[in-house]
Amino acid sequence: MVILSDVSKKFVVPGKERNSLLKTTVSSIKMQDADKTIWALSKISLRIEDGEIVGIIGPNGSGKSTLLRIIAGIYKATSGAVEVKGYTTSVLQLGVGFLPDLSLRENIFLFGAILGLERNYIGKNFSRIIDFSELTEFINAEVRTLSSGMKERLAFSIIVHAWKDVLLLDEALVTVDQRFKERCFEIVKEFKKSKKTIIFSSHDLNMAMQLCDRVLLLNKGQVVAFDKPEYIMARYKELSGKDLNKPSYENI
Amino acid sequence: MKLIDRKYINLVYEFSVSDFKLREQGTVLGFIWTLLHPLLMFGILYMLFAKRLGVGIEHYGIYLLIGILHWNFFSTATTQGLKSIMMRREMLRNICIPMTAIVISSVLTVFISFMFEMVILVGFLLFLKIGFSAAMLLFPVIVLIQLLLIIGISLVLSCLNVYFKDMQHIWDILLRIGFFLTPIFYPISMFVSKAKMSLYLLNPLTQFIVFARDVLLYKKLPSFISVFSIFLCVVFLFATAYIIFKKLEDGIMERI
After folding, report:
1. Which of B30, B80, B85, B138 has its C-alpha lying 20 to 30 A from A175's C-alpha?
2. B70-84 residue pLDDT tens
3. How distant is the Cα of B112 from the closest Cα of chain A, in angstroms?
4. Which of A11, A110, A116 is opposite residue B254, by nearest beta carbon?
5. In this model, does residue B93 exceed pLDDT 80?
6. Is the pLDDT of residue A252 over 50?
7. Domain residue limits at A159
8. What CATH number does residue A192 fall under?
9. Is residue A240's pLDDT more than 80?
10. Domain-located, residue A250
């Protein structure tokens, strides 16, 4: 269960010339470039029950990733309260965490440890992980030789084994093929039965519509709507109709 | 810090071992490459100073080698520690993992190499028929205290490196100065008057190198008081470093 109440997140964009000790000293003498603040999220309140499949959609920069990072505990909210009941597995980008120069086998153990799996647990489930990813023939190849879709497949296969209560994914399954995507949907629906929650952001509206119990529509750091997919579709079109529907090439 | 947590230990283990594999390219040959740097240093300093600074020193070669290997461990480990958070920024931004695990494992990676170097050093001791003594049993204790100090320093440096991009250059310069302020290739008594000695001994690296030479080379047991007091100092420094780390930690995620 995930409960957010009045969660806001402020980012400070430092004025230029402050990323080194030398420059900081110089620029504080010169008194230039005040820091700017950006509110990436403002006053977000929502409640997600156990066993819900929730998609987050919204234009670029609407706060999807920031929201996921706050739920994951990567960012601390500037104000408001975040309550997550249960073990959270957060892999905001599938494929991050692999070391490209090591083999698939070594990376499965490494990535498993990153997700909190113990070595002998991975050892026992090793063949299931690699079978699910359908990459058995590459088991001794280096991860850098995989395509990005294959990397996502490998990551997802490990994640499925680490998924205890809440799973958070950002822009998940963008590069995998349709067949694998459908297998993932099956898994997600199966896990739903055992009250496992998944929250993911996506630009793939079809995927969100097909899979989700509820969809959260964000815009400029605020909740536009959080409801059943069929209601959200219209709102999203309305939102994007204003600035996205008519692509204009005149200014290019 | 959840040092007893099995998941945490597992994570540190996987990070260290995979980093080590990458550093050494998984081969004995790769290990020779990382050894080459201290050995080259050793060769040059030995040729330069064996007949000069080293005249009054018994087994100057080993004396020098112990100094260089310890210094090399300290400087490489702190430098890797300093870079560790920035190097894993992509992972930290996307997966919720304890930051300390990243810093500690990058230090441990260098520690693994250091242990192999120590095996080679023991080989030299046997070859030169210096042999073993009971005092040697104290060596692991001394190394562990040193490791704690290095982890403490690395925790602070790794955070500062996020706040200030020129931290690496600053640390590089400090290390270069430190190399000459530490009795690596010269005897302590040579340049330092008795009055300034206590000031000079404030450098913890000096202490560790002196201890290591005593127990490995000269079969001399350092006094309990001296080892215990350095242990207390290191614990104090580590606690301070950890508090600073905790203060700096919160601002890091938004800066990487």
Report:
1. B85
2. 999 999 999 999 999
3. 18
4. A11
5. yes
6. no
7. 2-245
8. 3.40.50.300
9. no
10. no
Q: Do B23 and B30 touch, CB atoms closer than 8 A?
A: yes
DSSP single-letter state for residue A142: B
β-bridge partners, A83? A3
Please state the pTM of the whole predicted model: 0.89
C-alpha–C-alpha distance, residues B67 and A205, integer Å:
63
Are the beta carbons of B188 and B206 closer than 8 angstroms?
yes
Report chain A residues touching chain B, CB-CB < 8 A. 11-12, 19-24, 69, 72-76, 88, 90-93, 96-97, 99, 101-102, 106, 109-110, 112-116, 118-119, 170
Q: Do the domain assignments include residue A251? A: no
Mutate to test the interface with B, among A74, A102, A151, A199 (most CBs of B within 10 A): A74
User: Cβ contacts (< 8 Å) between B6 and chain A: which residues?
Assistant: 118
Contact A90 B96 (CB under 8 A): yes
Number of domains into which chain A is organized: 1
Question: Does the pLDDT at position A244 exceed 60?
Answer: no
CB pairs under 8 A between A and B: 80
Question: Quick one: pLDDT at residue B25?
Answer: 66
Residue A50: inside a domain: yes
CA distance B256 to chain A (A): 11
ipTM score: 0.86
| Distance between A8 CA and the closest CA of chain B, angstroms | 15
Distances (CA, A) of B150 to A171, A217, B168, B243: 39, 48, 16, 15
Sequence-ordered list of residues with C-beta below 8 angstroms from that of A209, at least 6 positions apart, any chain: A215, A229, A230, A233
DSSP at B222: P
- Asked whether residue A190 is assigned to any structural domain, the reply reads yes
What mean pLDDT is predicted for residues A164-188? 89
